[in-house]
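chain below, 427 aa
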Amino acid sequence: MKASRTPTRLVVLCADGMVPDFYRSEKDLGVKLPNIRGLVKAGATADGVESVYPSTTYPAHATLVTGVAPRVHGIYSHLASLDPTEQARPWCWFAAALRVPTLWDVARASGRKTAAVSWPVSAGASIAWNIPEIWDPTAPDPHRDLETPARHSTPGLFAEVLKALQPLLPKATPDQLRGEAALYLWRRYRPDVMLVHFVYYDQLAHRFGPMSSQALTALGQIDEEVGRIREALSDGEPVNLVVLSDHGFVDVEKEAAPLVTLAEEGLFPREKRGPPKLGRMGAVHAGGSFAVYWLEEPGAGEGKALGRAVERLQQAGAVQEVLHRDQLEDLEADPDAELMLDAAPGVYFSDRFEGPAIRPTQKDHGTHGQLPTRAGHAASFLATGPNIAPGKNLGRLALAQVAPTLARELGLPTDILSSKEEPIDLA
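prediction:
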């Protein structure tokens, strides 16, 4: 086994959607991040991290803990259903969908204690103290659904943590609650590995735009939680602290609804004034990308109808690139997709069946999900710890390098992971 160095402990904080400009740029970006920016001098940081395709939260988080691309780990998008006519589609919440070992599997096999707060694709995982990110898809507000995560958490843990969080519940944001839960688990159980997912910046960046005052306020709150957690880590033996993200963010002004065009071409049949019905085609929207699938072998007419729909969307300026199976294979993306549409600048894809195919956005003003090489889509990486060089510039990295790097910094055998990536030298 390839074990690395003296075993240490690890805390990973994911600031969902945070771009490296927030700690690399010298410009005034409208938000003060003293704790995150302080990690640049204290540790090793990347100029940018290339995410996966699609560059969305669930495939990226799966890559962060496995070190492999979506085609290998099996989480191709946020949705677990290919049926766009389904009213409440389930997400890829469950760790059983992962086809390869994870960082928590490696830690557990080595006798280390693990904890996680709202980490995507972790429901049912072999994590000692686990409060997974999961909700009832029919709930109007997932953050008010406490029953579902309680049911899938480590038995008794959700109620225990909720009792400690009770004074904060009326006014706290989702990230403040997640930060407080992480501090409780750290102080109460002293895990060797703890993973925490902060999501509020991502939510508000979607709604108002990545540089909106609302989103920047949420990012400032993440910075406060980073500071509180870092202070708590200093009370005891040395710990590696990693702050990272899963993807970047770009502004959008237009919403494109490929399902409208696909339905007009007869690929989602409907009776007059009736709802669309599932035929041979499935689809998944992912903000900056849109995947279509043949659920059954298509007829010649259906193949031509798909071609017409794609051409119409291209001519309307909604699509920058059409990625076919050979290109998706090169990207190690979803092997089942017939093709994926990559959105044009300023455009995002929705799952709407009604109204015009393209219109000014009425909801979101920010998105991600396009090719990870597109401008604005780079993720972040900052790390401090006893064996990590202060002020080190790591240049540009790949998201798949993170898991083997964290395993090595933990002193764990990296060859349990399926990743073929070499660990990053943080020393």
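Residues 62 and 379 are 14 Å apart (CA to CA). The chain has 14 helices and 18 strands.
thats it, cya
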